[in-house]
Amino acid sequence: MTQAGRPNLATGLAAAPSGRLVYAIGDCHGCLDLLLSLESKIVADASGKASTSKIIVYLGDYIDRGPDSASVLDHLVAGPPPGFEAAYLLGNHEEMLLQFLYGSEERALLWLLNGGKQTLISYGLDLTGLEAEGALETLRSELRARIPGSHLVFLENLKLTHEEGDFLFVHAGLRPGVSLPAQRREDMLWVRDAFLKSSQNFGRIVVHGHTPDNEPVERPNRIGIDTGAVYSGTLTALALEGTARHYIQVHSSEMPGTKHGYPKA
Question: Which residues contact residue 81 at a Cβ distance below 8 angstroms, ignoring those fewer than 6 apart?
Fold first, then answer.
């Protein structure tokens, strides 16, 4: 940490804890093949490096839009690759699923229109007659019956933030002008422009997903690593070791049996 607790990404002074390899994975949105491939590359990247510990921080939005949401949760529930710790963060899509499960009507249709249908299908639900009266309550009951208890425990215990040295990890970002303890859950899961356009020093470099871009985005106060996997076919990880950092990516166009991106929901 630099003087007065203000790391400066541009000068390379922001650092991960000494002897610790830190990886962060952006939004995978039900793309299990990309997630598995990226984890394999992370394991290879860490191999042989002198470190006392290794961690993967998953930035949320594991579900929706892509074809394999249920399988992605199965995989995450089983834990990280051997030799790694893991920190699993809550994304706004997991939040919408939980709201759907527990009876909130406010975002039920919003969730279905933003990839929730693909998640329901991944659990084996039939969406025929979705527009009929009472269909949402029927789907809710069926999903409650089908979703494994291990998935619910995982979803209900996802964290909002995680810290490693000079880096703070959160799904969407932070509200400028608000201290970390006073940040609203809503903002940490949903904020966009107020955070993305801010030059405020948050006391940590904020590593986030949520807002996709063609490439990782670096600013003096933040690093965005959502590269729109479900549409672009590119899933990105940030690797941190001391003051050094680099990116690891997988591309569906380079993977046999997959296609470059998935259809939009």
Answer: 39, 42, 43, 56
